[in-house]
Amino acid sequence: DALRHTYTQLQANTPGFKLRRAQSQMVAAVSRALGNSGGVAVVEAPTGVGKSLGYLTAGVPIALASKKTLVISTGTVALQGQLFERDIPNFLKATGIEATVALAKGRTRYLCTRNAAEVQGEGSQDGLFGDEPALFDRPIAPVEIDVAARLTEACLVVICDGDLDNAPEAITPNLRSAITTPASGCAGRRCAYAANCPVLRARTKVREAQIVVTNHALMLSALSLGDVDAGQPLLAPPSDMLLVLDEGHHIGNVAIDQGAASLALDAMGRRSNRLQVLINAAYRAVDKDTIGNLHPSEAIELAARVSKLLKAFRDQVAMGWQPSDETLEPQWRAPEGRLPEAWMPAVHDLAEDTRALFNWFHAATSLVAKGKDGADAAREKLQRNLGMTSEMVQAMHELWSVWKREDADGAPPMARWITQDRDGDFILHGSPISAAQVLRKLMWDSVDSVVMTSATLTGGGGFQALAIDNGIPDDAEMIALSSPFDLHNQAELIVPPFPVPPDDRQRHPIEVANYLEKELDWDKGSMVLFTSRWKMEKVASLLPSRRRERVLVQGETAKQKMIDEHLRRTAAGEGSVLFGLNSFGEGLDLPGEACTTVVITQVPFAVPTDPQTATLGEWLERRGHNAFNLIAIPHALRTLTQFAGRLIRTSEDHGRVIILDSRLLTRRYGQRIIDALPPFKRVIG
After folding, report:
1. C-alpha closest to that of 353 among 305, 321, 392
2. Helical axes 2-13 vs 88-95, angle rounded to 10°
């Protein structure tokens, strides 16, 4: 009854509301999932269905009735802001429901008033522990100090509430790292600046809210930490969480990133070698003979041994792998994730010693934090440096643990690889190749109930690939809703007989430029999507000047500034063409004349040299499967469907999607991809 009343109120009080069968079906599916502990629903809802209103109509009344927290997690910052600032307030106003709403972001999205004060020279005087080394950042420039001062003032008068995404000033990456604090460096309520701390204010709002809007990375991080941040729940206990994954097609990649680890050998060796002063300062601060069962000399010796082992392993890698000077991004990958046997003794030693070093820093940080209360700036600074170093050593240990771990029989292996940066440092990497295990552990087995939704989940072949990739429970309800638009009559899908395939590096950009010059309607709004920055910039350079002046190329200016200029031009009846990469192919809303043609320069297959993809492909092939069919095609279809979704945003829109990839006409998989794309009128060949 509450759901029906909510939906009725929404219809009555939302201007221009249109009753859509697909949206009603979504409300029902979301209700069944969130209304039952252990419920899971996977809903593919094309543009126009009204996903956010669908899951809010079901989720908000159920959350309020069950006294659970509705957590809405998004894949992009843009949607997170849209939900918090527009969609949810409009929903609550239309339905008359009263509920508290909070936005949950990571700590480094907020100003740390303590760090900002130190940047400005307050509280940074040398004290008892003022001799510990600065481990991380380059010096702050005078102009950055002025920005920090203005941000602090804006924060205190709640202009931006300390949220740096809404900051009235441009912030350099160096300044951001100096005026923010990760959890490891935060003194919490013990901090002298706690009363004006934007993070603590935001966390309090999140803990008290009935609806929380967050992002996939923070949500998974909260679950992996046991949902505790400085002793307080970060979002909500998993058993009291009703979770909606909007833009759910991103969750797998985010989960893989969550389980990944990396380590710069040279840089970490240098940092490990500089820990002696910090270790001595910790013993002086706590006035104890031992910390973590180690005497000072033993702790110093442990740090020195780690540094020595890192340097020795770097030499061992250099002997076995010598990257070509001609390779732009040198990479070595362990076949099927198996490292050379000769490396394993060093890997085991490093895993053990970094674990011991992390345990020591964790113990030292806790002991220093238990010291006397009050505005002891020196002690706070020591605690922060210990905490940040503890986080650094933990990241080191995670890499060696991933490299040491034996892959379970029958399960996908970890991907293990090495890259070399411009300075010649070797970067070691380890990563899961499937999100299934990570998501089962963190989400499916712990959260009360889950809804996953997106415009692109099936990849053209049903939900099987998605379910395998993400470990979705067998009893999940999975539905693909129909588009409410008349797509066959509103749009055309055109695949012309293009003269060269995309892998012809020299000729394909030339032919793309020629095609655009002749076939694009230059007096209207269009979008051209690329899979590589090099090809995008090459095509732009090949266009005649009279055409080039109408093109806005991603990267030449800020994204939002580009979009605003495109909208201004098209609203004024001028022609405008956006050249963009993947981030322009998703989430961009350009209705009406702003976008009447979408050109996709090639099918966006995953890069075959990507270490995770390559390792997974090897594992599948060895087990008798076709990796291309199981990985590449579903991925390409999901991305293509997102790209094509930029065209028809309302029931009044018309236009065409053009794919300049001759492989769709010549390869066996071509027809499968064409058939799986939205039901536009086909103009093939």
Report:
1. 305
2. 100
The dihedral sign for the CA sequence 417, 422, 426, 432? negative
Q: Give the SS3 label for residue 509.
A: helix
Contact between residue 566 and residue 583 where contact means Cβ atoms under 8 Å apart: no
- Contact indicator for 417, 333 with CB cutoff of 8 Å: yes
Burial code (b: 16+ CB inside 10 Å, e: under 16) for 132-164 equals beeeeeeebeeebeebbbebbebbeeeebbbeb
CA torsion angle 655 660 662 664 (round to 10): -50
Residues 435-490: tens digit of each pLDDT:
998 899 899 999 999 999 998 888 666 898 889 889 999 999 999 999 999 999 99
User: Which residue's structure tokens are 């027809």?
Assistant: 671
If DSSP codes are grouped into helix, strand and coil, which group holds residue 529? Answer: strand
The residue count for the chain: 685
Asked if 204 contacts 103 with a C-beta cutoff of 8 angstroms, the reply is: no
CB count in 10 Å sphere of residue 3: 19
Please check whether residue 671 is in contact with residue 478, taking contact to mean a CB–CB distance below 8 angstroms: no
The structure's pTM equals 0.85
- Rounded alpha-carbon distances, angstroms, from residue 518 to 280, 449, 537: 72, 53, 19
Q: How would you class 119 by CB atoms within 10 Å of its CB: exposed for 0-12, middle for 13-18, buried for 19 or more?
A: buried
